[in-house]
TrEMBL record:
Keyword Disulfide bond attributed: no
Matching NCBIfam families: lnt
Key words, A-Z: Acyltransferase, Cell membrane, Membrane, Transferase, Transmembrane, Transmembrane helix
E.C. no: 2.3.1.269
Name under which the protein is recorded: Apolipoprotein N-acyltransferase
Transmembrane segments: 20-50, 62-84, 96-120, 132-155, 167-192, 204-223
Length: 510
């Protein structure tokens, strides 16, 4: 090899390394588009960097590397709060916890990596064709990530587009993955359009304005309508530090604290957060549950609270239980968190490294009806379950309110809380229902059907959010069709991209 060839090799190696670094930083910057930062345009700009870099490549493996770097940057910056649960509260040694998070983020990065590889492999043609291809591939990757190995759709790009984004109006129609596909389409169009040419630039600008206008218009459509009388609700935030919650000597203090908070905040519906009683219901002191619910029942209302239930077979459920004027009802969590709430096959060794209480739970049935509480029908979801819109819409159209019970104390003071509230905002828009949230350390809130956060308690404070809530009836297009609509949208984008490629070949006489 000559000196000149060596120099060219070094230049190419440096260019590749520089591209990977730019992709890594762009992925990390994408987190700023989500809560609590809310720099919404960064979602488009970050993906535009990935699309622009990938469009210059000729080998699929180069596109894979760029997508992997982008994904690694995004997930390391966006979900590294999982380290807090493993190390601080799970007791996993620091090096092992850091390695576990790195490997998990590397797994998540495989999905944008696949987009990058396929985009390079199939991405010939003009800007519009490649933008449609990029959008279709992105939709497919996020749908797959939401399903494979029970799914982990946290930081799906669409979540960044809550109001005031003009794309927020699309949530009730195509859901979060459809909105993510629109972001990917706009990103690729921005990156690949030759803006110095008048006609392509005008066409791209027209598409951007059209989607923004359509989203604005759809956001004004009343997909659902009020039903019944408003309900007086008290959403209680207990603020119990996770490291203290499971200490036996403090159990009586937590039981008395829950009872006191219920007494101090009367309402038609009083809600305590996930696992607010940190033990099995059948091990509670005699008469405690009756005492807990008595103030609410006395005024003709109902209490809903998180507790562990055990059935006749000995199976343990992370559940919500209602007591009060209405007949007692329960809901058992359906979508459990791997490693935190159950052990996947062949991973029993994981629990030798961590100490996670109540980590051998059983999945609740998938056809559980909403709780009938007075004149309202309340669909319960517990913590992580509200990431899965296609599962929440099973309760529709019967449910008039959505209620989430969460305990994010596992993740300390991190991005987890505002990111989770943003997810709840999307679920409210997808279902056309208010989303009530009662949490241990935050963020306890009322989200209206249009995604607006009507009220929220400060994180890491004890108190209650007392307000009047209106139930809603009817179905949004997303509630009617679920993710089948966005899957069709992704297939259509790929089909049109394929047609445009064949048409271009025909015109060139290929």
């Amino acid at each position: 090899m000559t000196v000149r060839e060596q120099d060219r090799g070094l230049v190419r190696a440096w260019a590749r390394a520089r591209g990977l670094l730019v992709a890594l930083l762009a992925g990390g910057a994408s987190v700023l588009a989500f809560s609590p930062f809310g720099i919404i345009p960064l979602a488009v700009l970050s993906l535009a960097v990935l699309a622009g870099l990938a469009a210059r490549q000729t080998r699929a493996r180069a596109g894979f590397a760029l997508g992997f770097a982008w994904g690694l940057g995004a997930f390391l910056a966006g979900v590294s709060w999982l380290y807090v649960a493993l190390n601080r509260y799970g007791g996993m040694p620091m090096p092992l916890a850091a390695l576990a998070i790195l490997l998990f983020c590397a797994y998540l990065a495989l999905f944008p990596a696949a987009v990058g590889a396929l985009f390079v492999r199939l991405g010939r043609g003009g800007a519009w064709r490649r933008a449609l291809l990029f959008a279709g591939l992105w939709i497919g990757s996020e749908l797959l990530r939401s399903w494979l190995f029970t799914g982990f759709p946290w930081l799906a790009v669409g979540y960044s587009q809550t109001p005031p984004s003009p794309l927020a109006g699309f949530f009730p129609v195509v859901g979060v993955y459809g909105v993510g596909g629109l972001v990917a389409f706009l990103a690729a169009l921005v990156a690949l359009t030759p803006w110095c040419s008048v006609r392509p630039a005008a066409a791209a600008l027209a598409a951007i304005l059209f989607l923004a206008g359509a989203g604005f218009g759809l956001g004004r459509v009343p997909w659902t309508s009020p039903t019944g009388k408003p309900l007086e609700v008290a959403l209680i935030q207990t603020n119990v530090e996770q490291g203290l919650k499971w200490r036996p000597e403090l159990l009586s203090e937590w039981l008395e604290s829950n009872a006191r908070l219920v007494r101090e905040h009367p309402a038609d519906l009083v809600v305590l957060p996930e696992t607010t009683l940190p033990l099995l219901a059948d091990r509670l002191p005699d008469g405690y549950l009756e005492e807990l619910a008595a103030p609410v029942a006395a005024r003709g209302g109902d209490l809903v609270f998180g507790v562990f239930l055990r059935d006749a077979r000995g199976a343990i459920y992370n559940a919500a239980l209602s007591l009060g004027a209405s007949p007692s009802q329960s809901y058992a969590k359906q979508h459990l968190v791997p490693f935190g709430e159950y052990s996947p096959p062949l991973f029993g060794w994981f629990y030798e490294l961590v100490d996670i209480p109540m980590s051998d739970q059983t999945r609740g049935a998938s056809d559980q009806p909403p709780l009938r509480l007075g004149a309202q029908r309340v669909a319960i979801n517990i913590c992580y379950e509200d990431l899965f819109g296609r599962e929440l819409i099973r309760s529709l159209p019967e449910a008039t309110l959505m209620l989430n019970l969460s305990n994010l104390a596992w993740y300390g003071d991190s991005f987890a809380q505002p990111q989770h509230l943003q997810i709840a905002r999307v679920r409210a828009m997808e279902t056309g229902r208010p989303m009530l949230r009662s949490t241990n350390t935050g963020m306890t809130a009322l989200v209206q059907p249009d995604g607006r956060v009507a009220e929220v308690l400060p994180a890491f404070t004890q108190g209650a959010l007392s307000m009047s809530v209106q139930g809603y009836e009817g179905l949004t297009p997303y509630a009617r069709w679920g993710d089948s609509a966005v899957l069709l949208l992704g297939v259509l984008a790929l089909a049109v991209a394929g047609h445009l490629r064949r048409d271009a070949h025909t015109r060139r006489g290929v």
